[in-house]
Design a protein that fits this description.
- The chain is α/β, with parallel strands linked by helices and 492 residues long.
- The chain has three domains: 241 residues, Rossmann fold; 124 residues, Helicase, Ruva Protein, domain 3; 91 residues, Orthogonal Bundle (Arc Repressor Mutant, subunit A), CATH 1.10.10.
- 41% of the residues lie in helices and 12% in strands.
- The strands form four sheets. Strands 4-7-8-1-9 form a five-stranded parallel sheet. Strands 10-12-11 form a three-stranded antiparallel sheet. The protein has a two-stranded antiparallel ribbon with strand order 2-3.
- β11 and β12 form a beta hairpin.
- α12 packs across α13.
- The longest helix is centred in the middle third of the chain and has 21 residues.
- The radius of gyration is 31 Å and the shape is elongated.
Amino acid sequence: MNRKLPTTLGALRKSGWKSRPVKDEMRENLRALIDSGEEIFPGIVGFENTVLPQIVNSILSRHHFILLGLRGQAKTRIIRQLYRLLDEYQPAIAGTYLNEDPYAPISPKGRKLVEQMGEDTPIVWRHREERFHEKLATPDVSIADLIGDIDPIKAAREKLDISDEEVIHWGIIPRTNRGIFAINELPDLQPRIQVGLLNILEESDIQVRGFPLRVPLDICMVFSANPEDYTNRGNIITPLKDRIDSQVITHYPRSLEEARLITASEIALKDADVKVPDLMKDIVEEVTFQARNSEYVDQTSGVSARVSISAYENLVSNIERRVLLNKDGDLFARMCDLYAIIPAVTGKIELVYEGEQEGPSIVAHNLIGQAIKAVFARHFPEPVKGKASPDSRPVANPYEEITDYFSSGRRVELSDDLTLKEYEKRLNDVAGLSRIADKHLPTKNKRERLLHMELVLEGLFHHNIIAREEEDSVIRYADIFSDMLRDMGSGR
């Protein structure tokens, strides 16, 4: 901070500084950001043409506003960037609690200071980060927490009458005067507490325990919430909802590219030595997309972007663990590494009754399978099932060489503890596997080529062309009919 900033009221007047309402301050700083071409909300992906223009309009309109959306839709992240629209430093009367405008004090203490000291009234400068406060709404939040209450200990210590305004202990909202105050998960706030916010939004004033006082707060209120229909924890009372000027609806990323950008910006593990190709990143993101459309997952609860973030971190960690165990330096992803993300998926999705009946682990396995199938379909032709009848024209089966390999009774066993040399040998042993991978997903990277070959095996399994069984971390591929006969013979 510039040390030459005025330190008294008189010096402040001589500097030419002018006060302005916080919403005007945000509006003018936002206009300056737009004019400069600077990014308004850095790191927010996928909202450029939907959510962000509505937020900009709300701020330009000087509105209190609410971000309404399911969990993991960057609501809190957006809110925590709003302080950037405040002036870097702002003067306030020193020794008061309400960040009072030196030209217009609002508390008894502030007015008394200016009256007694005049132009010598001391001034402090507060950074923009000090002028932003937020509160997570929980059922135990009280009016005293948000607005304030009488402090009998203060009254006794300072020998003040209980009717003196000086005995009030101010809550977090008055202390955010001339700033931005955010309440996250507004419906969780009890209705009687929500009622206490009405005057702040409508009249910009407060009451404490029936005190006949009017404290004209200058504040921008911002809220976040899940849509009312999606939560059974509470609702936003109608009068309060009516006083929130703008309602902005958020959403999940609409493309894999956007989802990958979000994950890349949020992951805690950024080890450059681990190689996770785009194909694997697409599958990880596709798991989340599949979960958002699954009949087994509670869609009213939402599927957060944190599913992909945690899943990707588990994937990278499994590669690292495998390399430490095998000591072969193969830091490249394998398809079998995907099943290491199951703990991240089961821990972050809410299941409906049918999903609970299936079991979280089975649902997670199915989501991974659906994701693999979807990504496989983007790169490879759809497998042909069965044989052509004598009366019909033969249908070309691009995977015939592979299926014939398994039909002969041979099997392939892969696991995440295989050395790179053994992993490569087992894939190359499958007739036709390298040819189909090179034809439809060519690459000059030898290691990536092995991943594509493994994707073909997974894709054929998820199209019910070949069989696969999984035991711990070991995956075995075999002929589907031979596998069925073997199961029947064993009585399974």
